[in-house]
């Protein structure tokens, strides 16, 4: 007779593998949230710095262009301007 696992042992093993896969999935979700948050702040700060530079250089056309990009960026991310 073969050395096979019982149905109960198989179900326990399956339950544990599901638990591990759910935990791995949630970890991936959290990691993606952190990456998205970091990218959002990086690009937001970059645009703000460019807008400040345009103001310092007294360049109204560049200021308006960058301001429009900034508004679109915030709108794309679902953040109120």
In words, what does this structure look like?
With 81 residues, the protein is mostly helical. It has one domain. Helix content is 83%, strand content 0%. The protein has 2 helices and no strands. The chain has helices spanning 7-56, 60-76. Helix 1 packs antiparallel against helix 2 (60-76). The mean pLDDT is 89.
Strand and helix map with partners:
Layout: H1 7-56, H2 60-76
Helix pairs in contact: 1-2
List keywords for this structure.
83% helix, 0% strand
SS content category: mainly alpha
Q: Count of DSSP helices?
A: 2
Order of helices and strands: HH
Strand content: under 5%
For the CA atoms, what is the radius of gyration? 25 Å
Shape: rod-shaped
Q: Which oligomeric state applies?
A: single chain
- Characterize the largest beta sheet: strand count, sense, and whether it forms a barrel: none
How helical, in percent, are the residues? over 70%
Mean pLDDT figure: 89
Runs with pLDDT <50, length 5+? none
Short description:
By secondary structure, the protein is mainly α.
